[in-house]
Design a protein that fits this description.
19% helix; alpha+beta; Ubiquitin-like (UB roll); 5 strands; 2 helices; single chain; 81 residues
Length: 81
């Protein structure tokens, strides 16, 4: 079942609704957000995934990270946290 999340990408002026699956990694989710914003923001492979003000390990799944419907996350350049 898809989980609707709000993603904010550094350098973008819009927040985007992204559908996630419990078993996908937060890295996959970050890439999905980058793909959705690719017309406005260039892709950056050196990123940090931020949830509740903390950087989350990119290899964790959405479920392991504790993301739930309507949660907000951010994708920023690594080293900017």
């Amino acid at each position: 079942m898809a989980i609707p999340l709000y993603g904010f990408l550094e350098g973008d002026t819009l927040g985007l609704l992204v559908l996630a699956e419990e078993g996908e990694t937060v890295l996959d989710l970050a890439r999905k957000l980058q793909d959705a914003a690719s017309l406005r923001v260039a892709r950056n492979d050196k990123i940090a995934f931020v949830y509740n003000g903390k950087a989350i390990e990119l290899g964790l799944t959405v479920a392991q990270a504790g993301l739930q419907a309507s949660d907000r996350f951010e994708v920023i350049g690594k080293g900017k946290l």
